[in-house]
Design a protein that fits this description.
Fumarate reductase iron-sulfur subunit; iron-sulfur; 265 residues; 16% strand; Ubiquitin-like (UB roll); metal-binding; succinate dehydrogenase (quinone) activity; iron; binds FE2/S2 (inorganic) cluster; 6-stranded mixed beta sheet; binds iron/sulfur cluster; alpha+beta
Length: 265
């Protein structure tokens, strides 16, 4: 089904909400065909694609395009988002087949072919709830399982924990994780083997395993050495390519594997 935003003056037919006036089409806008996987568990037997024609400026974020569809064309379209600036990690989705954050992808990076077409689907490997929303609980279960918090057994110091910048550098990269799940849901092992903890959980374990102030490294390594842990990784690098924060995910996994092999962090 194709639903078009026709003119800048007509009232749009908005499903699921009040009619809304379409905003004027800005100068320099291109018409984008946006194909979105839709699924309403109360109405549909399964997911299907729907198409929308949306005016967008090259500098718009794809999240703006989704807002346009929701606000002016079909108010039932459902997706997660919060910060709109690549910080909260809530709008991971498959954009033209690649896991990305909707708020970090610009229209100008999607257009260029003659059709100005973009396909948006939910991330894979997690249960589909509605439209672009998946159930994130299995992802957060794996995250919680690796104890992603500082563990200490000695008496607390009388002043702050001191750490050299060299020690801080060991886990600097993995502190950048925003738990968006782009990595885990791009991992072919995670798609096929339910039990694998996935790269995001390992990244967050790495962040504490290599922190000189932490004393829980061996507990986490024990968790990650079992059948659901790091050894399932096949080093295919999908996760590193998918990470919107540029974290060297596969490198972090390799460092955890090495720490396990040599029992040393
Ligand atoms: S490197 Fe490992 S964790 Fe990352 S996508 Fe490949 S198999 Fe999955
Ligand atoms: S490692 Fe990167 S892709 Fe994976 S959850 Fe963290 S920020 Fe997202
Ligand atoms: S909306 Fe927060 S990261 Fe995209």
């Amino acid at each position: 089904m194709t639903i078009a935003a026709e003119t800048g003056t007509a009232a749009a037919s908005v499903q699921g909400s009040d009619r809304a006036e379409l905003p004027p089409i800005p100068e320099g806008a291109v018409m984008l065909t946006v194909k979105i996987q839709r699924y309403n568990p109360e109405l549909d037997d399964g997911p299907h694609m729907e198409s929308y024609r949306v005016p967008a400026q090259p500098g718009d974020r794809l999240l703006n395009v989704l807002h346009y569809i929701k606000w002016y064309i079909d108010g039932t379209l459902t997706f997660r988002r919060s910060c709109a600036h690549g910080v909260c990690g809530s709008d991971a989705m498959r954009i033209n087949g690649r896991n990305r954050l909707g708020c970090k992808v610009l229209v100008k990076d999607l257009i260029g072919d003659k059709r100005n077409e973009v396909t948006i689907e939910p991330i894979k490997g997690l249960p589909l709830l509605k439209d672009l929303i998946v159930d994130m609980e299995p992802f957060f279960d794996a995250y919680r399982a690796v104890k992603p918090f500082l563990i200490t057994y000695d008496n607390p110091p009388t002043r702050e924990y001191v750490q050299s910048s060299k020690d801080r550098d060991r886990f600097d990269d993995t502190t950048k994780c925003i738990l968006c799940a782009c990595c885990t849901t791009s991992c072919p092992v995670y798609w096929s083997e339910d039990a694998y903890v996935g790269p995001a959980a390992i990244v967050n374990a790495h962040r504490f395993i290599f922190d000189s102030r932490d004393q829980g490294a061996q507990e986490r390594l024990e968790i990650l050495s079992d059948a659901e842990g790091v050894w399932r990784c096949r080093t295919t690098f999908n996760c590193t390519e998918a990470c919107p924060r540029g974290i060297q995910v596969t490198k972090a996994i390799q460092e955890v594997k090495r720490a396990l092999m040599f029992r040393r962090v």
